[in-house]
Amino acid sequence: MSSAARDQILRDIRRSLPADALRPSLDGDWVRYADPYAQFFETLRGVGGAGRIVVGEVQLREEVERVIESIGAKEICSVVPAAAGGNVDLAAVDDPHQLAGVDLAVLPGELAVAENAAVWVTNAQVGQRVAYFLSQHVVLVVPHDRIVNNMHEAYEWLHRTAGPAGPFAAATWGTFMSGPSKTADIEQALVIGAHGARSLHVFLLKP
Fold first, then answer.
1. Which whole-number Å values give the CA distances from 145 to 31, 135, 136, in the listed order?
2. Exposure b/e, 78-105, CB count within 10 A at least 16 = b
3. For residues 49 and 42, what is the distance between their CA atoms, to the nearest angstrom?
4. Which residues have CB under 8 Å from 155's CB, separation 6+?
5. How far apart are the C-alpha atoms of 123 and 125, rounded to whole Å?
6. Higher pLDDT residue, 103 or 187?
7. How far, in Å, are 91, 99, 119 from residue 110 at the CA level?
8. DSSP class of residue 147?
9. pLDDT tens digit string along 55-113?
């Protein structure tokens, strides 16, 4: 292609650019719930997960022990000592492939979203972020007071807390998880645990 033809193409593209548009406002009459906790757990069940509110570390540990027994977990990594001990030390893992045999990962969640049962997770305390996805089963422990109604409130919370001066400044990665791994690509039949955790339990911990 000659330089003249290239320049003509670029000029045509510039003339055809869409007009600038203002970003939509995040202020709006977004969905809110009379009981965001009830909504969160109802939605969580709907996407294949389970969970409940637990009061104190003793009840938390009892609930996690039930999960361990129900799945017969042998290889366990835990970044939440109050919930469970573990025999897989994430801090000593330098190759993520070493986590392929983990039965259960007990990990922190930072924020729960009522409308879609999403939980914001980061690598601030989890050295190998693949633990959220490579483990056969996952338990997330979220502080009870960290729940919002909708994703608009969630992003507002992230903007407020996850910046350079926020409490999660150590995180270099984060994502929302909603329920265990699932797919319905084949014949539109829902399959749980197709390419990730086969179960997800979320416990909202009250002091």
1. 19, 27, 28
2. bbbeebbebebebeebeeeeebeebbbb
3. 9
4. 26
5. 5
6. 103
7. 20, 22, 7
8. E
9. 999 999 999 999 999 999 999 999 999 999 999 988 888 888 888 889 999 999 999 99
What pLDDT shows up at residue 169? 67
Length of the chain (residues): 207
Q: From start to end of 95-168, where are the E strands?
A: 104-108, 111-113, 118-122, 137-143, 147-148
- First-to-last C-alpha distance (Å) of the chain: 69
Parallel, antiparallel or unpaired: strands 118-122 and 174-177: antiparallel
For 11, the token pair is 């000029």
User: What pTM value is reported for the model?
Assistant: 0.84
Instruction: Tell which wins on pLDDT, 194 or 36.
Output: 36
Letter string b/e over residues 171-192, b meaning 16 or more CB atoms within 10 A of that residue's CB: beebebbbbbbbeeeeeeeeeb
Q: Which residue has the higher pLDDT, 160 or 105?
A: 105
pLDDT digits (tens, 9 = 90+) for 1-28: 788 899 999 999 998 888 888 877 777 8
Question: Please, are residues 121 and 174 in contact by the beta-carbon 8 Å criterion?
Answer: yes
The first and second tokens of residue 206, run together, are 């009250």
